[in-house]
Each structure stands twice: as C-alpha cells, then as structure tokens.
Amino acid sequence: MSKIDYSPAAYNVLARFYRAKSILYVEGDDDVPFWSKIFSEFSDAKIEILPVGGAENIDEKIKLIMTGSVKILAARDSDFLRVCNENANHDQILYTYGYSIENTLLNRHAITEITSMACRGYDYESKKVDTWIDLIVSTLSDLIKKDIANYILKSGVAVLFDNCTRLMQNEKSCQPCEEKINTHQFKISKYFDENTLNLVDSHLEKHGISLELHLRGHFLLSAVYKFIDQEVRASKKGQVSYESIYVGAIQYLGTFLKSEDEHALHYKKQVSQAIASIQ
Q1: CA gyration radius for the chain?
Q2: CA–CA distance, 73 with 245 (Å, rounded to integer)
C-alpha cells in the first residue's frame, strides 16, 4: 500500500468517509481479519481497518497518536516491545498479547482444533499438542531469550529464523534437533553477555507471560505447519496448507475470544479502552 500522509484534521474526519466510529490502522493485510475479529467480539462500534504496509509505517501512526492531535487507532505486533516495557502507553494504541498475531491465532487450543479438522477427526488429543509445544519451548528456551537479548543489544544476529526448518531434525520434521540447536547456540554465544541475559530474565519475570508467546510468529507458523502435516500424513486422510491453517485459526478465534483465557482478557481490555478513548 502506498504511503499517504494526511493532516491531523483530515485524519479526524476520515472515519466519516467510511461511516465508521474510527479508523484502525494495522501493519498488513493478514492483520485485518485478526483485528476485525477482536473488535467485533468486544465492541459493537463500526471500526474501519486499514493496512499500512509494515511495522515502520504503523509506528508513524503511533507517533502521531502520541501527539494527542488525532482520534485514530493503531494496532501492531508487540514484537519484543511489551516484554522490554518499550510499548507506547496510550489507549488508542493496541498490541498483540504475544510476539505477533500468530502467537494468539496459533494457541494450543487452536492448534488442536485445526489439526482435528485437517485430519477429518473430532477426537484429536490435545495432549499431543501440549507435549509437542512443551518440547519446542524447552529445547528453544535459551534461543528465545537470546532473541530478546539481540533486540535489546541491537546486534543484528540471526538468532531465530522466519522458518524453523534449520533447527528441526529434517526438512519435514516438526521435532527440534538438539545437535543443530547446540551448534547454533555455540556459534552465536559470543554476541551475548551474562548481564544482558540476566536483564532478559528480569524482563520476562516482570512481564509474566509464558516464554512460548515470545517465539517469533513466522517461526511458530512454520513449526505448526510441520506438526499438522505430520499428523495428517499419519492419519492418511485430509490435507493441510499454510492458507488452511490461517483460515482455520481465524475461524476458531471467535470461539477462543469468548473464553476467560489470558489472551482474550488482554484484548477485551484493550478494545474497551480504545473505544472509550475515541468517544
């Protein structure tokens, strides 16, 4: 999407053009259905959602909101901003509960539901998902922490990747390979000092949400795809694609948000504050 700059006055009347209560700016096209579900679940207000083409552009909207001159909304992936207490504290600005929208979309309940649908079965054991996620988190915990440390230090080190394959047992496997992980750990360890890693532990303790929710979204998605693909092949029925996972996750999100889960409570509070701020 090409970048269009409006004056503060123009921003404040733009919602009228869409016959909406307000405009919500989000990072990209995939964020639109996610935040649409979030707002429709927790508010009756009509909100027009517009993608701006990435985090850099959404951060420009956030800066504008912080001036106090516009009545627009902005939502972005938290990345490592919330865990490091660097997020903008403003009711018109919303953040994902975990690192990205994928960390909410691909929660344990959703993975179980999507796997069940992909395998054409309704009795899929959630225990399998829990065991697998626990294994991923336990074997990658040090790398997740180093990824946060890398953000703090602005080192530019490739700690975790957009695709999990390089750290799995083989190209199709969803099982982490300890040998590959240890080799990668050894290769990058020189970039991280003990003080920074201790600071990461302190941030995580204060932030208080599960370490798995700080796993990069695209890394998580690629791992979930491999997991569901493995289960589909084992069941010898059904099929899976990245698109079907995304669609299934969006469909399940409405059900998930009706729960008292920590994700749902986070978004409910954010939406309530956002709507109140534009009255």
Answers
A1: 20
A2: 28
CA pseudo-torsion sign 89, 93, 96, 97: positive
- The pLDDT tens digits of the residues spanning 79-128 come to 999 999 999 999 999 999 999 999 999 999 999 999 999 988 767 889 99
Bridge partner list, 73: 24
State the virtual CA torsion across 148, 152, 154, 157 in degrees, nearest 10: -30
CA quadruple 70, 75, 76, 78: dihedral sign: positive
**Each residue's pLDDT tens digit, 192-208:** 999 999 999 999 999 99
| Backbone φ, ψ for residue 255 (5° rounding) | -65, -45
Residue 174, token pair as written in the block:
């969803």
CA 126 to chain centre: 21
The one-character DSSP state at 212 is G
- Which residues are CB-neighbours of 134 under 8 A, at least 6 positions away? none
